[in-house]
Amino acid sequence: MNRTVVLHIEGVPNPDAMKFVLENGILTDEPYEFKNLVDAENSPLVRRLMMLRYVDRVLMYHNYVAVVKDNKYLKEWKQETLFELKSLIQQHLSANEPILYFGAKAIEHEKSEDAIVSIIRDVLDKKIRPAAREDGGDIVFESYSDGVLNLSMLGACHHCPYAKQTMEQGVEKVMKALVPEVKKVTATANNLL
Questions:
Q1: Kind of pairing between the strands at 184-187 and 148-155
Q2: Is the residue at 101 inside a domain?
Q3: d(Cα 63, Cα 93) in Å, to the nearest integer?
Q4: Do 22 and 59 reside in the same domain of the chain?
Q5: Rounded Cα gap, residues 45 and 128, in angstroms
Q6: What is the pLDDT of residues 104-138, one digit of tens each?
Q7: Which of 85, 87, 104, 152 could be cross-linked to 42 through a Cys-Cys bond (beta carbons 3.0 to 4.6 Å apart)?
Q8: What is the C-alpha to C-alpha distance for residues 164 and 82, in angstroms, rounded to an integer?
């Protein structure tokens, strides 16, 4: 049985990414990033997207799918390309096809009982991740040791031209102000800092 799917497209700060927002539903409760066809084996929807040679990576979270293009195959977004992606997502969701297979591995966040790590995660979840998600990406905790916080930038945040600025003037500044134990913030996905 088909269902009605209302989807719109939003531009984000990263010119290589676009966000396809589902207006009438939720896709996932956790962020899932897919960087290649092997990753996409757990998601029929993402596998269909990754079959398009100009799709470099996909982040699926809450009510949106963020698509990052591969500049080798697509220099600038074109209306027909955006229409193709939107149509593919709409058709998949309208047909009630699976989004993720049961047992798909979520992005694993390192677990720690350390009080500083708990505070860092809380600041990330409340002050930083909502803004990144608004822009079609996500910033997740990787590790913390000896004053150095290591994060990963996912989806549209990956290779965004503003990523270094975001890390230095946003994330690091907020973290140092709210968690004095943090002396430096690094980002593994972009090797920014």
A1: parallel
A2: no
A3: 12
A4: yes
A5: 28
A6: 444 443 444 477 888 898 899 998 999 888 889 89
A7: 104
A8: 27
DSSP 86-97: HHHHHHHHHTT-
pLDDT value of residue 24 = 84
Give mean pLDDT, residues 89-96. 90
Hey, CA dihedral for 123, 126, 129, 134, is it positive or negative?
Answer: negative
Tell me which residue of 89, 61, 66 sits closest to 19, measured CA to CA: 66
Q: In terms of residues, how long is the chain?
A: 193
Q: Are 37 and 74 part of one and the same domain?
A: yes
Where does residue 57 fall: left (phi above 0), alpha (psi -120 to 50 degrees), or beta otherwise? beta
| Non-local CB neighbours of 164 within 8 Å, separated by 6+ positions | 190, 192, 193
Q: How many domains would you assign to the chain?
A: 2
Residue 122 maps to a domain: yes
- Residue 150: give the domain boundaries: 115-187
Residue 1 falls within a domain, yes or no? no
Counting Cα atoms < 13 Å in the Cβ hemisphere of 138 gives 22
Tens digits of residue pLDDT in 45-88 = 999 999 999 999 999 998 999 999 999 999 999 999 999 999 99
Higher pLDDT, 191 or 21: 21
